[in-house]
């Protein structure tokens, strides 16, 4: 982790976001470097649950109460970590609605091949929407219950919770559910975390417009994940894809947390110039 931090700083990055892919040992090594931690992607660090599965597989929207409460418990530990390292916020995934995932896979394959205007695509998309809509209510209620518990805890700890735009259509929240969840919790404790790649994928798939996420939740935005996109493949280095950075820059409130969430498969050459590119586009100062 010391080498990772040194390289990040060499490339112009000033802070680190810790996420659920780092182990307790890696986290310990990261904190020894004394690099500022801007935010933490919950749950962190990567350990196993009581069921022997990765804690990242636990869901805040689970209808099995002991699984939901365990997800809440590990999220509270992430809030504790954020408070201890003086991070400003944690990023939350609120869960998912169980659906036939083969529908999503078929939709992605058609989109990749440029067949989004076909009858087949429209039919699969409609099946997916119907299935999700018919099953969502109880899972959204569970997510809302988890969020209320976590917001009370995070208020005590002085940590902001950022509800993230999701990538997959089955995940919670979609754009209207985001409004419902945010309206039910206090500002200053829970806010919106915009992920540019996820919002762009939602647009490419025909579910919601990227700009609508920004315009609807601009006033609640607490942070943003920055990466580029090719089709529906995200987490490319900014400047190496087709993202409309000018549009994004128009909606960014001052003072939010800005994190480059770039896939580890990007090589160093891809990473060089990212900071200067984002400065040129008005994303960072």
What attributes does this structure have?
285 residues; alpha/beta; TIM Barrel; seven-stranded parallel beta sheet; two-stranded antiparallel sheet; 11 helices; 9 strands
Q: TL;DR?
A:
This protein has 285 residues and is of the alpha/beta class.
Describe this structure in words.
The chain is of the alpha/beta class and 285 residues long. The chain has a single domain, classed as TIM Barrel (Alpha-Beta Barrel), CATH 3.20.20. 46% of the residues lie in helices and 14% in strands. The chain has 11 helices and 9 strands. It has helices spanning 2-10, 24-32, 65-84, 101-112, 119-157, 175-183, 196-205, 210-217, 245-249, 268-271, 274-280; strands spanning 16-18, 37-41, 89-92, 160-164, 190-195, 221-226, 228-230, 233-236, 257-260. A 7-stranded parallel beta sheet has the order 1-2-3-4-5-6-9. Helix 3 links the parallel strand 2 and strand 3 (89-92). Helix 3 crosses helix 5 (119-157). The protein is globular. The relative contact order is 0.11. The mean pLDDT is 97.
């Amino acid at each position: 982790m010391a080498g990772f931090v040194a390289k990040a700083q060499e490339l112009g990055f000033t802070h680190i976001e810790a996420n659920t892919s780092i182990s307790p040992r890696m986290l310990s090594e990261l904190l020894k470097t004394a690099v500022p931690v801007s935010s933490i992607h919950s749950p962190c660090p990567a350990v196993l649950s009581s069921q022997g599965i990765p804690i990242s597989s636990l869901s805040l929207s689970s209808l099995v109460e002991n699984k939901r409460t365990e997800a809440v418990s590990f999220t509270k530990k992430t809030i504790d970590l954020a408070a201890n390292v003086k991070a400003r916020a944690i990023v939350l995934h609120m869960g998912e609605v169980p659906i036939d995932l083969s529908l999503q896979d078929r939709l992605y394959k058609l989109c990749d091949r440029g067949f989004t205007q076909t009858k087949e695509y429209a039919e699969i998309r409609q099946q997916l929407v119907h299935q999700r809509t018919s099953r969502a209510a109880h899972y959204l209620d569970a997510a809302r219950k988890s969020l209320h518990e976590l917001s009370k805890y995070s208020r005590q700890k002085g940590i902001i919770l950022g509800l993230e735009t999701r990538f997959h259509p089955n995940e919670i929240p979609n754009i209207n559910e985001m409004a419902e969840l945010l309206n039910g919790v206090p500002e200053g404790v829970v806010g919106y975390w915009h992920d540019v790649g996820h919002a762009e994928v939602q647009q490419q798939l025909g579910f919601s417009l990227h700009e609508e996420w920004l315009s609807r939740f601009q006033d609640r935005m607490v942070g943003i994940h920055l990466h580029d996109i090719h089709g529906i493949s995200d987490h490319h280095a900014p400047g190496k894809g087709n993202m409309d950075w000018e549009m994004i820059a128009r909606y960014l409130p001052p003072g939010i947390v800005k994190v480059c969430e770039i896939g580890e498969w990007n090589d160093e050459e891809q990473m060089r110039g990212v900071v200067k590119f984002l400065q040129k586009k008005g994303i960072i100062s």
